[in-house]
Amino acid sequence: MDPTPDAATPDAPAAMAWSMENCQVERAMGVLGERSSVVVLREVFVGVRRFDDIHRHSGVSRQVLSNRLAMLVDEGLLTKVAYQAAGSRPRHEYRLTPKGLDLYPVLTALAQWGARWYSDPDGPAVQMVHRDCEAPVEASLQCAAGHRDLPVREVVPRPGPGALPLS
User: Fold this and answer.
1) pLDDT in tens for each of the 167 residues of the chain?
2) How far apart (Å, rounded) are the C-alpha atoms in residues 136 and 108?
3) In angstroms, rounded to a whole number, what is the distance separating the alpha carbons of residues 111 and 96?
4) Can you tell me the distance from the alpha carbon of 53 to that of 83, in angstroms, rounded to the nearest whole number?
5) What pTM, to 2 d.p., does this model score?
6) CB-neighbour burial class of residue 115 (10 A; exposed 0-12, middle 13-18, buried 19+)
7) Ramachandran angles phi, psi of 137, nearest 5°
8) d(CA 117, CA 111)
């Protein structure tokens, strides 16, 4: 007997009734799923924008870095901006686009989760703080009606307008 529930069984999760073929999480992970993609974005978020600096600071190999930067530019998360140091050839640095900046809450949530579960005993290497008052920033869940700091068990997935029925 197959232990996997299907949409026809009464104890199946509601999600079994809709298709995942157009899932936004899966599509986003197609862009962010490689460790080096998130590491490169981390570097740009903290102000490291030039290829050699990203390479040196992140430890990502030159070839992988080149590939990830090209993909992040192609996906519209980063843009290349020309610069030229005195006496050097023209080069590019990488800047976040609005699409890339929209990942800041995701990076903050990931940093918060990593600080809780993977920090050294002395604490996390990086803290997200409010620029004006230096208080730590935490990612939290809130609904469009204004309810803030929702416990994770009070947030549930529902089919969205783009949901497709399971075929």
Assistant:
1) 444 445 556 788 888 888 888 899 999 999 999 999 999 999 999 999 999 999 999 999 999 999 999 999 999 999 999 999 899 999 999 999 999 999 999 999 999 999 999 999 999 999 999 999 999 999 999 999 999 999 999 999 988 999 998 87
2) 11
3) 18
4) 14
5) 0.84
6) middle
7) -105, 135
8) 10
Residues 62-101: b if buried by 16+ CB within 10 A, e if exposed? eebbebbbebbbeeebbeeeeeeeeeeeeeebbebeeebe
Structure tokens at 2: 């197959």
Instruction: Give the chain as a 3 state SS string.
Output: CCCCCCCCCCCCCHHHHECCCCCHHHHHHHHHCCHHHHHHHHHHHCCCCEHHHHHHHHCCCHHHHHHHHHHHHHCCCEEEEEECCCCCCCEEEEEECHHHHCCHHHHHHHHHHHHHHHCECCECCCCCECCCCCCECCCCCCCCCCCCCCCHHHCCCCCCCCCCECC
